[in-house]
Amino acid sequence: MSVFSLRLMAAPAAVGMLVLCSCSVKQETAAGPSESYWSAAAQSYSVGNYVKTADHLEHLLAAENPYAARAIAWRLVLTSGMARGYTDLADRYTAAARVNKPKALELRRTAAGYHAMAARLALQFAQDSDRLRQIPLGNVQLAFALPKGSVQEPPVLWEIGSGNDLSAADREAAETAAVEIGVLLSVCDATGAPGDPAKARQILATGVATVSREAFANTMAQWLKAESTLFARDRLDDPEKLAALQERIDRVLAEGAKVGSARVGLVVNASQSQ
After folding, report:
1. What is this structure's pTM?
2. What's the chain's average pLDDT?
C-alpha cells in the first residue's frame, strides 16, 4: 500500500463537506453482483488491502441486497480503523519534525499528507454512520474475520517518532503497519474486546458473531469523538467539520438506543462463541 493509495478512496466532495441526508435505497434486480462484491471484499480483506475492501463494500451500501446490513457494519469498522492508523502516523511525523530540525519542513509536509488522508476517511466514516439506521433493529452482525497484523508496534514506527531518517521501503512498511494496527484495534473495539486480538478472534471465529445495537453505537460514538480531534485547532483547524462529527455522536447514540429483534436464523450471538 503506497503513501498515496487512499487518494482514490473518496470523491473530492466528501472532503469538503458531509452529506447530511441519507442515501436513497435502490432495488437490485439480481443477487449476482452483490455476491461478487461481497466475495471480492472478503478476498481483499484477507490480504490486507483495505482500500479495495472498502471500495467493494461501498457497492453494497445503497442497494437492497442480502449483504447490505453486514456491509454497512464492516465498512464502518474498516474506515474508522484506517483513519485511526493514518492519524497515528501523521502524529508520529509531527513529533519527528520537532526533533529533526534539518528535515522539519519535509516531515511536516508528510504529516500534513497523512492528516489529510485520515481526514478523508474520518469524513467518510461520519457520513456512513448515518447508515446505522439502515441496519435492522436487533443485534449488529460482524461478518468478518480478525484482520492480519499485530497490535505490537514495530520498531520502524518508533524510528519515525524519534526523528530518524528512514528509507522509502521503511516508510512504506511503517504506513502498512500503522493502518493494520488501526484496523485491528477497531475490530477489537467493535467486538467488545478492546486491545485484545485473541479474544476478538474467538468472538469472530464463527463468522456470524453479533454485538448489541447499543454497544456498537457506543463504540461508533467513541470513534467519532476520537476522529473529530483531527479537525481541532492543533491539527487541521476546521471547526465546521469538528462540529459535524461531534453532532453525529448524539445521532448515533439515539439510533443505537432503538430496540427490536433481528430476523430469526440470521445471526448467532457473539457471547455463544466466547
Report:
1. 0.84
2. 85
CA separation for the pair 84, 158 (Å, rounded): 17
- CA distances (Å), origin 258, targets 61, 130, 217, 246, 268: 21, 14, 10, 20, 20
Cβ neighbours for 109, distance < 8 A, ≥ 6 positions apart: none
Average pLDDT value for residue range 222-244: 94
Looking at residue 260, its pLDDT comes to 61
Secondary structure class of 151 (helix, strand, coil): coil
CA angle 266–267–270, rounded 5-degree value: 180
Q: What are phi and psi for residue 61, nearest 5 degrees?
A: -75, -45
State the residue for C-alpha cell 492480519. 148
Give 70's strand partners. Answer: none
Neighbours of 58 (CB within 10 A): 18
The cell for 178 is 500503522
CB 179 within 8 A of CB 86: yes
Average pLDDT over residues 182-192: 98
In the block, residue with C-alpha cell 492519524:
87
Cα distance between residue 214 and residue 68, in whole Å? 19
In the numeric block, which cell numbers belong to residue 26?
Answer: 435502490
pLDDT-derived band at 226 (thresholds 50, 70, 90) equals very high
Tell me: the pLDDT tens digits for 6-60?
443 443 434 444 433 333 333 343 447 899 999 999 999 999 999 999 999 999 9
Q: Round to whole Å and give the CA distance between 73 and 37.
A: 15
- CA–CA gap between residue 94 and residue 235 (Å, rounded): 10
- Whether 65 and 31 have beta carbons less than 8 Å apart is answered as yes
